[in-house]
Sequence to fold (573 residues):
Amino acid sequence: MKVLRPRCAFDVPVEAECLVPERLAEMTTEALLRLPLAYGRFSVPLGELFEVEADGAADAAVVLEGDFSRVKRIGENMAGGSLEIRGNAGMHLGAGMSGGTIRVLGDVDAWAGAMMSGGCIEITGNAGPSLAGAYPGETRGMRGGMVLVRGDTGLRAGERLRRGLVVVGGCTGDFPGFGMLAGTLVAFGTLGIRAGAGSKRGTLVALGGARGEMLPTYREACVYRPVFLDRLLCFLEREGFSVTAEHRSGRFRRWVGDANELGKGEILVHEKDLQ
Amino acid sequence: MRFAGVEIEDTYAEAFKMWGARLLVTGSSPEWARAAAEAAAGFAHSVIGCGCEAGVERFLSPEETPDGRPGATVLLFASSRKDLEKQLLLRVGQAVMTCPTSACYNALAGEEELSVGGKLRYFGDGWQGSKVLEGARFWRIPVMDGEFLVEDRFGIRRSIGGGNFLILGADARAALEAAEAAVRVMRRVPGVILPFPGGIVRSGSKVGSRYKFLSASTNTSYCPSLRPLVESALPEGTNCVYEIVADGLEEDSLRQALRDGVKAACREGVCRISAGNYGGRLGQYVFALRDLLGGDAP
Fold:
């Protein structure tokens, strides 16, 4: 296992796409300290910005301790191993990752899990905008894997989600699931306004209800209890989310849309008063 | 050899290679879970006439099922992969899907997999949707009470069918009570089902018949009413015979079930325990009764 700690508070962002567990596992501490990082407009060796502690084991486990909120692209494109961040993390955390696990004991900035295709990101705090989203110009956002956020998320969570599961323990910002193609986004709190705008398929689940009215391009179908949610909630309970008796027995109002697109998307809103 | 005062005939049960699958069905209540499970296992007593052999393995509490609802596991056995696939599609599609509130999951990490939900999904007529969770794909098929959730692929594995023994009783009551006692203990063994009604067979068969159009007919050697008329296998004083047939996912569990069953059946009023075989020519597995009891024999 390797442990990295910032030597100071960073004034400008650090681009740290090299902080990928499977890559660091193969490196000696000396080589790691020489890794070039972009610090603002300068390229500096990693050792100038971070101190490194290694126990000699060649496992693909990396721990980042301290404030990494200005460190971008941690775990970008990672394919395996484990990364734990004991503090906040910066933008693009785990973007494009295809395997492995990232655990953040803190908050993360925008674009966490953007366009990822596998693996799991767990965030104990809040996530910024465009969680599991698609970069501008891309037709598909997250295509697989799982993102679990215990807190709230910013705008446009799950934008152009193609596959995979995004779970938000709190509330989402506005425009969740914008342009969704498939996959599932669950919010234990409320869904922000204009949920599912432009979605073709996919499922948005609002266990805490939805803020504002549904888009007029979503039509109400029925009030029922989809069995898939029973299956999903059992899984989420095991993952440590607080699934209540109300969630387990309640019914859901199904909205289908977006009629401007294919119209096979759904928003399932928990009806608190209907058991 | 005698066990608990009952003669154990020096013979063996002949069992066959089969392919097995395990369904886990759930419902909104224990009653609906039972209805779905029993429907899935309905009319599945013998591969000869029913296409497969099936039975409810056990009922499950909500804590034991993947969706937190009451459920049951059902074991299905067929002679070939092709037959098993056909039966899975028929039974999940016609028996489980039609049952109110039901869902159907794979509960066997098999050596091979068959597409079940992946084929039944077309019933959704284009409105079906899939979800992937914990590495498994599920199909959500819209139905009139909401949705039918079915797993995409089901594991299958090589299994064993036709493990059996015969209980030769002095009278009908004693033989039936012994058979019931055997069924009770055998049903506790995981991975084993007794496909016949109540777990007991009264119309054991032999291969062939005097009629050309019939491939199997009543087991005359064990019919008490024919004892003076045919070459009977029944000792003096036998007036009723019941057969217990069991299928298992694994040889060891089937062996355990047969052992427990034979022991439980050895009680007052039972003259002899025997077993059905074809001279060792047809079955790939042999369960010698005396070996089953092994060191337990007095």
